[in-house]
Write a structure and sequence with these properties.
Helix content is 47%, strand content 13%. The chain is an alpha/beta fold. A hairpin with a 4-residue loop joins strand 1 and strand 2.
């Protein structure tokens, strides 16, 4: 084979390798014109959210203490002061995820877009170390938000989450805070914890392993079912905010009937009632 033939062969091999090689990805960047993102674990990118589904923090009723603590913790983080990871746990529909999104919006309004909210899906927890490594070098500050976080059975993802939150060598980046909501205080069902206690050689150590994840959250905020007066306050706030043409004497019995059909009172039930009421009145929300 001549030198010219060898050169042509090598050129064809190089061209073939270029065709089958994956496309080079652009360097990781965070859009400056977006305040909220969703982490895409498959592409390892942050997808901007054009409009966040949230309510104004003034409309959240019956959670005054939780609201004040969440706002204060978030403000400190936005000002680059020490702040805690937060676990919001308790009754379903009590406003846990609504408070996270509302607090983010309120602090961003106070401190001029200082925070980015990043939603992380429960099934993408194993990719959290990769996400943190990407965010570590950014100039922005991020609140990672995982809604309805819990672990069942033999799910071992909680171990990687524990290390990432506080126990790893690198630790949590200074520009990242983790907020999670859950119906469970220890993020695991009680029967799972009790089973560990009954089958382990050292029961106390087994239980410690399971509940130590929730200990990584320095701020615990409990949410509980609301009473009827608080439920009415929620509805009254929505009626006034959206200027619905109906008197309180008219909507009160309707609201009571609504809770009877749902079998519960909560912020979510109040909002569902308002959506139904606005539809009946022909008012767009």
């Amino acid at each position: 084979m001549t030198d010219r033939e060898t050169t042509e062969l090598l050129k064809r091999i190089a061209d073939a390798l270029d065709r089958i090689a994956p496309e080079a990805r652009p360097p990781f960047a965070v859009a400056d014109d977006a305040d909220a993102f969703v982490w895409n674990a498959e592409t390892e990118r942050l997808d901007p959210v054009a409009k966040v589904n949230r309510v104004d923090i003034a409309l959240l009723q019956g959670v005054d203490l939780q609201r004040d603590q969440m706002l204060e913790n978030t403000r400190r983080f936005a000002k680059k002061l020490p702040a805690n990871n937060a676990l919001l746990w308790g009754a379903r529909g009590a406003g846990k995820s609504s408070l996270v999104k509302a607090a983010h919006a309120a602090v961003n309004k106070e401190i001029d877009g200082s925070l980015a909210l990043v939603e992380l899906h429960r099934e993408d927890i194993p990719s959290l170390p990769k996400l943190l490594s990407l965010l570590r070098g950014s100039d922005r500050r991020f609140i990672l938000f995982c809604d309805d976080l819990s672990f069942d059975g033999q799910d071992a993802a909680y171990k990687s989450l524990k290390a990432v939150l506080e126990g790893g060598v690198e630790g949590r980046p200074d520009n990242v805070l983790f907020y999670a909501t859950s119906n469970r205080r220890h993020l695991m069902p009680r029967d799972m914890i009790e089973n560990e206690r009954s089958t382990a050689v050292n029961p106390s150590e087994a239980v410690e392993e399971k509940v130590s994840l929730s200990d990584r959250f320095g701020l615990w905020l409990g949410f509980h079912s609301c009473d009827q007066q608080t439920y009415f306050s929620m509805i009254r706030g929505y009626v006034e905010a959206y200027d619905l043409p109906i008197t309180e004497e008219e909507w009160r019995p309707m609201a009571v009937e609504w809770t009877v059909t749902r079998g519960a009172r909560s912020g979510r039930v109040a909002w569902q009632f308002i959506q139904d009421l606005a539809g009946r009145l022909g008012v767009a929300l």
